[in-house]
Each structure stands twice: as C-alpha cells, then as structure tokens.
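Sequence in, structure out. Go.
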Amino acid sequence: MADKIKSPADLLSMANKAKEAIDLRSGAKEIKVTVHMGTCGIAAGARDVVVAFIGEIADAKLDNVAIHQSGCAGLCEMEPMATVEMADGTLYHYGHLEDRKKIHEIVQNHLVGGAPVAEYLIKSA
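Output:
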C-alpha cells in the first residue's frame, strides 16, 4: 500500500478519497463523461485519459459530473476519445485526447465553463 496509516486522520483521509472516487463513478449527475475503452482506445492511451479526467474533475471540485467507461465507439482513428453528455442529452465527442493538456482544457472550458472546446471535437460528416 502506497499510503501509510499513521493515525486515525490518515485512515479518514483515505476513506474520503475512496468515497470521492466511488461518487465520481456512480449516481445520476448533470454531466456524464464516457471514456471509450475498446481495444483500440486502450492501445491509444484511454487508461491515461480516464485517470486524467478523474484527476481534473476532482481538482475542479465538480460534484455534478460522473465518469464512465464504455467499449469501442467505432472511430478507431480518433482514439483515445471521450463523450461528454449534458443533462439535456446533448452529446459532444472529443478525439485525439493523448495529451493531458487537452483534458484539462475540456474540464475547465466545457465542464466548468459550459463552452465546448471546438478544437478537439470530432466533426460530423
């Protein structure tokens, strides 16, 4: 175990972190972020994308966002990718998320600020 428990406060801190991680992945939230974790997504770095979204959402202290994982979205050339679903059902598909800076911008501009990051959106045909 990486964290050493030295006091009851350490144990409480670990329990709170675990609860935050569980809350991030469960319950009905206003915004849902789905990271596509098919074979092509994983090969392109989707595991790092999930970790980055979790960290950025936690850092922004967003309690209205849930993060999920799914299989392949069928756009292998756009991986790693994620879909943001707003409360009204509007979907935003982001691609080529191999850079954590992009995820930071999506969280800050879209999830916090309400403005999708057009530069990283997958364009519809």
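Check: The longest helix spans residues 8-24. The radius of gyration is 15 Å.
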